[in-house]
Structures are given as structure tokens and as C-alpha cells.
Input
Amino acid sequence: MNQQQGVQMRGKRGKKPIRPGTILGKAVAYLVMGIFAFMTIYPLVWLFFSSFKTTTEFRTNMMGLPIDWTLENYRSAWKIGEFDKLIGNSVLYTLGSTVGITFLSLLTGFAFAKIKSKATGPIYGSFIIGILLTIQSLMVPLFLEVTSIDRGIGDFLRSLGLVGSGEFRLFHNTRFGVLIIYIGSALPVGIYMCTEYIRGIPSAIIEAAQIDGAGYFRIFRSIIVGMSKPIAMTLSILNIPSLWNEFALINILVSETNLKSLPLGIYKFSGGLSSDYGKQFAALVIGMLPMLLFYIAFRKQITAGVSMGALKE
Amino acid sequence: MNGTATKAAKDRRAYWAMVLPSFLIYLFVFGFPIVLAIVLSLSNYGGGKMFGGTSWGITGFRQYQRLFADPYFWNALKNNIYIVLVSVLGQLPLGFIFAYLIYRKTVKFEEFWQGVLYVPAMISTIVVGILWSIIFSPYGPIADTANHYYASAYSAKISGIFQTTGGLSDPDELTDQIIKASPSTINTVFSDPSVDLKDFLLSYEPGDTATLQKDLVNLLAPRWNADFLSKNNVAMIPICFVTLWMWVGTYLLIFLANMQKIDRGIIEAAQIDGASEMQIMGRVVLPSLSKVIANSAILCISGSLSGFALILAMTGGGPARVTQVLSIYMYDKAFMGAPDYPLANAIAIMIVLFSLALVGIMFALERRFGGKE
Amino acid sequence: MKKKICSALMFLVILSMGAYAQKTTLTVFDYIDATAPGYAENEAIWQRFIDENPDITIVKEELSNEPFHQKLAAYVAAGTLPDVMYMYPSGRSTMLHEQKLVKDLAPLLGKDYLANFIPSVTDPSGQKGKYLAELPQSISYTTVMFTNTKLLSDLGLRVPSTYAELKAMLPKLKAKGIRPVLMANKDDWVMQSCLFSTIVGRMLGDEWIDNALAGKVKFTDKEFIKALDFVETMYKDGVIGRDTIQISYGEAPALFAEGKAAFFIDGDWRQNAFLTDPSSGKALIDPKRQQTDFEYFNFPAIPGEKNPGVASAVLGCGYGISASIPAGSDKEKAAVRLLKYLYSADVQRQYLELGRYITSRKDVKSDKLEPFTVKMAAYHDAVKKTCYVLDGALDTSIYTPLNLGLQQIGLGTKTPTQVAQSVQAAVDAWRASH
Output
């Protein structure tokens, strides 16, 4: 109402349409955004160059380019952080959970969207609540849950004589546990996105397939998976960076070095171990490089995906 | 193939086969921990075996009483609210304005801005946290640059004073002038400046004014106030800044994509009618994005409650707990020093309630003010 | 049918992922800083044990500083304690002692074996649980004033013997851009362990602490507030900069080595940070300068002190064996074998040479020590009387507000009286529950 009146009044007065942005406005816009872009990029560039300085040089020449370029920082950071052990885990956790999340989200989303059931209301609703919760807030009970379950099962199997005196591990300090919890933490958003997407697929296609005698699993396999490629892509693209960078959960789920992921290795370089800036910077670069490359490679898809259903860690 | 009953049963089986795995995992990761947190927050569980170990039982709301009596809980909550405010009132408006500037082609190079401003969201929060903690540290680049600047400014002042007063030939005048020139620092070095500083000046050889001047700069030049980041009310500023830094790009992308879905015709019509840029933004673009903005706000709130890794890497909640947020406070109680699981679980429940309350407020606001799609 | 096979397979996969070991596997939780000099050598020491004992598999986890304590507390809570762990005689490891989660080492190692160590470390009364829960590798002196004597003499200054002398040096030091006393106060335990304990020992004495815990005196009494006042005075005088609260534990040694401070206060273990790293051949302070330019001193005399020359010291850390290992089992034997290896004269000599600590084993001698290590042994001898390290003498629930309060005094956000009140409140709560 108001809006139309306003526009009409202007129209009656017959003012000339104003071109978007006067010169001054443009200058201010460029300046503000330029400052922001600078603040985004400069620290990262600075970090990159500083990672080639020795600690001594960093102290005396903090802002300039390195005078003696050295790769020594990378060599020792790689060794201290034991990144060779961690990279593989990071890849496994990221890809494994991404596949799991995408598959389960499509499957469950399909059931919610296209199979009529009274259970959909409450169950789907409970997943929606999950979107609003931050899994981090549950890290203490989650930790107690996984350790207690492991212990309980271990004691039980031991009483049956099925396992030896060793520690029994199922969820705590296992790759399996990390994968399950990563999958679970991303399911609410994934199921929400997939359900909404699959709802948009015409039911007529499914009904036609049913008349041909296809069961729901076959429909899922032969029709839904194919038609849901865009949403599957979006979901994966969104999940990969957040899973790769995940810290809070794996920090409590895993304590053995050979099960840790990259962010845990980098965390070693904070606080207590920060005596050596050179190594620390190198570790930070190692930590951010994979996802920057991923970003460069998939920028288009990431941009599109974020605007569809932005996820935040 | 006989009858609808079998088909219905088959459908039901398919439905559950598709839903159950996800639902069980979901219950394992979200549902059960919440129940466990509620139970433990009402108990005196002291660690160890949960079943069959040392016995523990329900003791009521004692933990919550303890929590509400603890000033550090309120401090953490306050810090959380700061972050939420900066997120909702900083990230969203900035993201919106930037998106709008790009959308209206006020600034060119759309791809560049999008590409660059989203970069921080791709970097691990641990990396971001450590990086910025170095930048803000008393030996970091900010302090370094500022101190260089202060020192050269003060150095110019001192050499001016030496010229006008004739240096050590008139020590009383020199002392007076230096005291006047260094109001902020003089008392931190000398308890009785007019006497002590004069003694200090006279301890130098009269010919060695170059060294003396240099030493005076070291001694009395103002310095980048490194401890400002440890004071109660400012300590959160770097953290809030970095939060903003990380997420503005995300909202820029979300808003821009949704602006591009707006029918160009409406905007052109408004322009022909003579609407100003502000009017187009306020009356055309903003209302058509109201739903997106509300959803983003919800996203923003739940995101801002998960600043755990960032703060852990930046400050660890210190110094003296001034930068603790609820999640760090909870982590502290559970994993640092003697574990206090009941209290930590009570905090977990408080975080859950806090986030649900905020989201509830958002929904209410949206219903009240938004809704024009 | 297919489905059943599938689920059976799934079950098998899950079971195999929840792997367990039948062979003698020892899980070890070790305290080591991966960036510290000598890290590679330490790994080699462990590798040798692994090579010599093919029947034992070692699964080792390493952390240091705060994350170590956090993790250990988590293990205790979850009841998943590692088989062998590095631990403190009290302080942060109190729960291991009090809940008797680790075994008594005295019968396991045997009298003859323990006779190799100086008597004070094998005396169980020094440990929280009053039994030999861990065998201390050393005695730790927690207050050492690392002093850059070269820097002082270049400025015509001499080592201060009183606090007033220390304070009088400030203008001269600051004029050269040198900070007087460096401490890594970002971690809140540092002020308490490395300086305040000695202040309390000097001004009040151990007996006073015992009385306070018995309820005979209160932390809100004037004497204790005076000790806190002294901390505030040091900050106010600028002897310790308030910005030290931003300096992390790892950062400080490099600053001191670069000559950015005349004095550096930390525990005796910190000498290790300055020594030559065998893997790179580099040292923060090279041995020649260690010999000529630096010395260790006790903190200067404090105004109003009753016990001059006292410095805080505590039994060192060592390894303990989880009590959940069945007595007489292969695992127990393996754990004992590991401990006997770690405490052997040979390994202890290597640790001494790496500068990790001054070993408590009597039969260890070496001529390959760097000057800082030799000087540390001399410093130990020079301190004639020791006092409590407060986080060893007080319960966690009591020293937590104390640590925090000392930091708040540094920030200027709490007064000594307020801090004393919060400590006394913690004491009252602790006494009520004991």
C-alpha cells in the first residue's frame, strides 16, 4: 500500500529517475567494500609470506617480504604436526561422511516427501528442531554417551568371554564413531533440503513408475537419485568444507594421533607451542590450503550452494 | 500381488527402511545426548562408570542453582549475547548492503567481491583463531606498527625539546618539558618525575645526547596498549570482529542470490516512477527478502552459538575467563581440572534453551514484521 | 535374504572397527611438547623399547600443558585410563591419587630397584595418596629467576638482592627497551606455581597453609592478603608488565633469549627450552653464552618476609601404572618392564643430557651436559630450604580461584581482598565436603 503510494507520488511530481549511485556514492561504496576485501585478503597474504621467514626474521621484519626464503618451517611443521598421519584421516572423514549424509538425506527425504505416513509429521518435525540446535552444545553429553556405551559393551562382551582384557572401542577413539557422529550432526539440514527438493519432483512420475510395478526402492534408485543430482551436489559442496574444518566434536571423540584430523594437528600450534612463529605460520598455511584449493576449483558451485541453503559450522 | 493390504504393508516397510537408519543416527547424536544432559544435570554423577560404578542419583535442581549463582556463568552468557548481537546486527546488515551494492551495479566486478569476501568462511576456524590471535598479540603486527609510529612521533617531539631547551645545559627546563610532553607515561616510570627524571637525565654524559634521546623514546614513548584486550568489556571486541570477518561473505552470497530472483520489472517500474535508490532498497528489495532475512537470522544465531573453536584458538576463554562463552565455560567444567559433569550438562541445557529462545524471538519478529513475500 | 547378508556384514564391519587387541598392548599417555628441543631423541628412546620388546605393542598419545591435563581428566571421568601415564605427585593429578586409580609402585619395582633413587622421591608421604603412585624423576624447583647477567653488566647494573634494588633498575632497563621481569602469565597457573608459591613460603610459610586448611587461620587474614598485595605491587611498579598476561607459555623463552628481558621467572624445567635441539643443532641460547652470559638466582628478598631464601619445590613428575590392570597379568609385567626401562640409568642419563630435568637417580653421571643443566644442579644445591608449591598443597577447587585471582590482580579487575575472599570461600566449601 504505502509503497505504491510513495512511488506514485514521486511519479506525479515528475522527477527524473535517479541513476543508481552518484559518483560520490559509488566512491564510498568502492572504498568500504575495498577496505573489507583488503582486510579479508591481506592477513592471509601476510600469513603466507610470513610462513617463509625464520622466527628471528619475523621479529625484525614483521611486515615486509621474506629476505631469506626458507622452506624449513614447512618441513618441521609437517613433522611436528604429524600431518602425514592426519591428512588421510581428514580425507576419509570428510568424504565418508559426505557420502553418508548425502545418501541418507536423499533416502529419508524421499520417504518424507513421497511416501504417505502418519509418522512423517513428528519425525520430520524432530529433524527440523535439530537444525536449530548446535551440536557443539551437546559435546559433553555426547562424550559421556560414547565412552559409556563403549565401556558398557566392552564389559558385557568381556563377561561373555568374547573379548580379551583390552579396551573395547566402538564409538570413542574410532573412525567409525567419528563418521557416525559427523553424519548425524549434518542430517537435519540435509534431510530438510532433500525433502523440500524432492517434494518439487512431480508425483506423476512416481505414480507412473508404480503402475509399471516398481517398488519405492527401485523408484529411488532409478528416478530420484538421477533427478536429485543438483541437490546432492549442493549438499556435498556445503558439507565438505564444514566437515574438513570441524574441530569441536573430533576434539572430544578422538585422542589417538593416528585417528586425528588436520584441525587437531593445527591446534597443537596454538598457545603453549607458539614459541616458534615460523613453524606456526607454516602449519596455518598447511591448514588452510586444501580448502582454498577446493574453493578455487568449485567456486561457482559453492557460491550457488551457499545461497541455496547456507550452512554454518 | 494380492490386494492393497500387501501393498500398504510393503510401502510401510519401505518407508521405515528409508527413515529408520537416519532417525536412529539422529537420535544417537542429538536425541539421546539431550536426554542424558537433562538427567545428568539433575544428578550428582561424578564420573566413572555410568552403570555399575560408584552409585549416583538424582539430586534435583541444585546444579542450576549453583550455575545461576556463578558470576562466570553470567559473564559467559553476556559474551554470547554480544556475539549474537554482532552477528545479527553486523553480519546481516553488512552482507545485505554489500549484496545490494553489487546487485544494483553500484560497484562493478561482482565476481571479485563475491569470490574474495567468501574466502574466510572456507578456512578452518582453528586457523582463523590462531592467525588473529597472533595479529592482536602484544608482539603482533598491529602492536608493532603502532609502536613504530608512536616512537617516531615521540622521537620528533623529544628532539624538538632538546633543540628549544638547549639539551642538558638547562636540565630543569628540559625535565619540565619532557614531563609535559609525556603525560601518559611519565608516572608509570618515575614515582617523583621532577626529581627522578632529572637524576636520570644527569646520569648521561653531556655530549651523548643522541643516546639519551633514543633512551628517552624507549622509556617514555606511548606504547600500544597491549592489555586493553584483556579488560572486561573490550576483550570481546577482537572476537566479535573476527566473527564478523568470517561470515559477512556468506550472507552477501545468500542475499545477492535472492535479490537476483526479484523480478527486474518491479524495480524498473519503481525507477520510472522516480523512486530513489533508498526507496528501492527499503520498499522493493527488503520486503521481498524478508523471509530470507529471517531464515538467515536463525542461521546466524545458531552459528554464533558455536563459536567454540574460534574462541578456544584465539583466547581459550582467557585471560581470567573474560572471553569465555557458554560453550567454553562448559568445556572448562567438563574437561579442565576436576571434572564437574552435572554442572557442565546443566550448561549444555542452558545453551539449548538459550538458542531455542532466540530462535523463538526471531519467529515472533518475523510473524510480526515480515511475511510479504 | 540379501538384506540379511547385508546387515550381517554391517555388523561384522562394526565389530571389526571396534577393534580390540589380544597381544600385550600398552596404551601410554605421555607429557611432551612436540616443539621442544630433544623431541626426536625422546621418540628414539621409546622406539628402542619398542624394538627391544617385540611382544609389547605401545600405543602412545602425547600432549603437553593444559590439553594434557584436560585429556587426563576426561579419561578419569570416562573410566578409560591409559595403562601407563605421566602424572604429577599431586596438583593436577590429584584424582589419580585420591581415587587410587594407579597402582602402588613400591612392591612392583621392588626395594632394590628403588634404592637407586634419592630417598626423598621414594618417600610415599610426599604424594597425595600417601603411596608411591608415581616415581618422581626429579625434584622440581618451581621458582627460578633466569638472569641475563651480560645484559645487566653492560648497563652497569648488578644482580639485585632485594626487591627494592630490582625496582630501582627499571628506568635504566626500560630506557634500553628491555622489560625487567618476563613471565608467561597467559596461563593462569604460572604466577601461582612459579612465583606466588615462593612469596607465600617466604611471607607465611608451609605451616600457615596447613593451619588454613585445618581452619585455624583464614585466607582472608591480613598475612595472606599482604602476600597478594605484593603481587599487585609488582604489577603496579611495572616490575612485571601487565601485558605479560598476553604472553603465552611457549612464547616467553624466545623473548628472553633475544634479550628482551633482564629476568625470566619460571620453573627449573624451563631450562630445557634454551638447550641445543639435537635434531637441528640449534639452541635458543648457545652453550657458550649459557656459560658466560646467564645465571640462575632465587627471587630477591621481599619486604616483610619471614623465611628468607626459601623457594618453592615439589616432587617431580613420573610415570604411573593404571590400577585397572589385573595384578600379575602379562599387561602388568609389560608395564613394569616399560617403567624399569624408562627409569634405567641409561635412559635417565639421556634425559639429563637432553636437559629435561635433574634426575633423581643417584648413579647417573654425564660429562656431556650443557652449562644451563650444570648450573641448574648448582641452583638446586644453593636453595637451602624449600616450601610448598600451592597447587601441590591445595585442592583443585581451592587453587583454581587462586590462579584466576592472581591473573585478575594482574589485570587490575580484582583487589587482593576480593581474591582472598574467593579463595577462602573455596576453602570453606572444600572443608564442608571433607
Q: What stands out?
A: The interface with chain C takes residues 47-49, 53, 137-139, 188-190, 196, 200, 215-216, 218-219, 226-227, 229-232, 316, 318-322, 334-339, 341 of chain B (CB under 8 Å). The radius of gyration of chain B is 30 Å.
